[in-house]
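Record type: monomer structure entry
Structure origin: computed from sequence
Chain ID: A
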Amino acid sequence: MPAYMISQVTVIDQEKFQSYLAQTQPIAAKFGAKPIALGAQPKMLNGESDGHQMVFVIEFPTMEQLEAWHHSDEYKAIVTLREEGSLQHMVAYEGMAPPQQ
């Protein structure tokens, strides 16, 4: 079953964030990651916004591969860029079959 990483992002240093994106994409691809969606300019439909500017949805083949990417030495080496370039809330979800209609 696939797994999904959803990251709500607020960019605080554009140059560092762009460097992080350029480096994290090929690292994540080694673990089977595929970008599913990128959204910007959120409009709240319910609840209160945490102020994030954009959201990324990334699909991995399995939760194990998602966790392997997140804990890999290659990814850990660029975490400082992520932290200096953006504020992020990253959450991993196990994929599920949609409810039958």
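Annotation 1: The CA atoms of residues 27 and 73 lie 10 Å apart.
Annotation 2: The longest helix spans residues 14-29.
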